[in-house]
């Protein structure tokens, strides 16, 4: 058993649901919007369009590593869940290895871009999140790109209201506690996510800066669209394109960042000293 995760978190992911999660319902917005934002950011990191050395830390079963490799990038995925490493290792062009975001095996300045599209979710202790961000800074080249995903503070409240789960007393108690302090700590009788930390958007740049990263932008992924029951519109390519364009227009509006379920924060390595 891997020592990198709390046993409860490991058990949650060993169920195997992560590989297909972003292919269904409103979750598809998270996938498509992550692709949209990352492709623009990575293009800026390689002005000539050259393939990048991408380290996908906490990359799960490879949902993003797969399309990044198909785009031509040299992708190494690191994840603390053995099942995920096994699944990702079967994808074309993806190298996968077991590891901890807080203590990466990668050499200093060995990546052009480091993605943390999951690790900060499951590090409730701030010191651990700073360690993960500092490790990303260490392994990215000078001027290289670091992008981290976070779950927004009120995402659980919005999601449980949308689904009806909030009206179950056990779920409501856990959700309200998360809104108050940011930590989701599942207890018996509730059916929510596993142990996690939900950020306020303004918290993330502070953590980036303390880890030696200069923030270059923040991007709300789903906007309000994930709460509006638009799944059928996502099935139609033309209407989907309109939804994605609308979300792009408001993605970095400060007053709207927290309405998204997920937030991407992008930064670059700041010189030491």
Describe this structure in words.
This protein is an alpha/beta fold and 273 residues long. The chain has helices at 7-13, 18-21, 27-45, 63-70, 82-88, 126-139, 155-163, 169-181, 203-210, 231-234, 237-250; strands at residues 53-57, 74-79, 94-98, 111-116, 140-152, 183-184, 196-199, 213-220, 262-269. Strands 1, 2, 3, 4, 5, 6, 7, 8 and 9 form a 9-stranded mixed β-sheet that branches. It starts with 6 loop residues before the first helix and ends with a strand. The model has no long low-confidence stretch (mean pLDDT 93).
Molecular shape: globular
- What is the distance, rounded to the nearest whole angstrom, between the alpha carbons of the first and last residues? 39 Å
If helices are DSSP runs of H or I spanning 4 or more residues, what is the number of helices? Answer: 11
Order of helices and strands: HHHEHEHEEHEHHEEHEHHE
Question: Would you report the number of β strands?
Answer: 9
Oligomeric organization of the protein chains: single chain
**What is the rounded Rg?**
18 Å
What's the pLDDT, averaged over the residues? Answer: 93
**Biggest sheet descriptor:** 9 strands, mixed
Q: Find the structural class using helix and strand composition.
A: alpha/beta
Percent of residues in helices comes to 25-40%
Spans where pLDDT lies below 50 across 5 or more residues: none
As a percent range, the share of strand residues is 15-25%
Task: Give a concise summary.
The chain is an alpha/beta fold. The protein has helices at residues 7-13, 18-21, 27-45, 63-70, 82-88, 126-139, 155-163, 169-181, 203-210, 231-234, 237-250; strands spanning 53-57, 74-79, 94-98, 111-116, 140-152, 183-184, 196-199, 213-220, 262-269. Strands 1, 2, 3, 4, 5, 6, 7, 8 and 9 form a nine-stranded mixed sheet that branches.
